[in-house]
Amino acid sequence: MKSLNVSINTQINLAERKLGMVVFKFLKYLTFSIMTVSLVIALTNCTSPTASPLLRIGTNLWTGYETLYLARDLGYYDQKPIKL
Questions:
Q1: What distance in Å separates the CA atoms of residue 36 and residue 39, rounded to the nearest whole number?
Q2: pTM for this predicted structure
Q3: Do 55 and 83 touch, CB atoms closer than 8 A?
Q4: Which of 15, 38, 51, 82 is within CB 3.0–4.6 Å of 77 for a Cys-Cys bond?
Q5: Is the separation of the CB atoms in 56 and 47 below 8 Å?
Q6: Residues with Cβ within 8 Å of residue 84, at least 6 apart in sequence
């Protein structure tokens, strides 16, 4: 009975080790996959856009927005795709 108990315990320990290795390999694969996807997203966002759309800014007639109109009148937005 003692040897059967030891044999069962040994089999259980081996099964736990195998399960631990499977979990470890899965976590390693998952971590690698997440890092790869993050890197691909980061690198694809670093490319320059071919044509940037016009940025339209809508404002109310308020004194606080006067600097936007002053910048437009002074020509700060001439080289930028901004329409005020």
A1: 5
A2: 0.41
A3: yes
A4: 82
A5: no
A6: 57, 59, 68, 69, 72, 77
